[in-house]
Amino acid sequence: MLSSFRRGFYDCLNARADALFELTDALGCAGAPVTDLARLSLEIEHHRGHGALYDGLNCGAVDTGRLRSLVCAGPLPKVLGPDGRERIVLAVDVSNWLRPDAATSPERSFCHTYARGRGQAQMIPGWPYSFVAALESGASSWTALLDVERIGPGDDATAITAAQLRAVIDGLTRAGHHRAGDPEALIVLDAG
């Protein structure tokens, strides 16, 4: 299954595919937290020089529609309902990538955050991302991440989330995970 996904992922890379693929391998196999890009070029899985790493990031391209289809076609956890039938349960959450010291980074928003050492809510510059994941039954921290979408400064988070959920449900239906007659998908959202 993993080798099939890797082949599919490689096929989603339009330009500088080899450099991007090796970068992804290096990122996944790094033995320590990644603190900078140049160190990734030193990982065993990255067979090219550091220049190829930057070239891949600057000039490479990913077919995001194809990648979304690939992810939706993968294994999908389902939850057993009270009627004994399995159903898809999706959770949506917005998480922030805080970048308070990156003054030159484009399109940062003020992200609402809690508990950054002061026990109170704060607004910190960063990038909010909306994640959609499929949940499974029981006590587990494992989820199947299906989609991520960055929310820009002028974007309507509700409209982005609604479009994102429609696209995920369409992708799961096209992949055969949801058919006519199946229980409707349950979608879990928070209000904050």
From TrEMBL:
User: In terms of domain of life, where is this protein from?
Assistant: Bacteria
Stretches assigned to the Transposase IS701-like DDE domain: 9-192
Q: Name one Pfam family in it.
A: DDE_5
Name of this chain's protein: Transposase IS701-like DDE domain-containing protein
Q: Which organism is it from?
A: Kocuria dechangensis
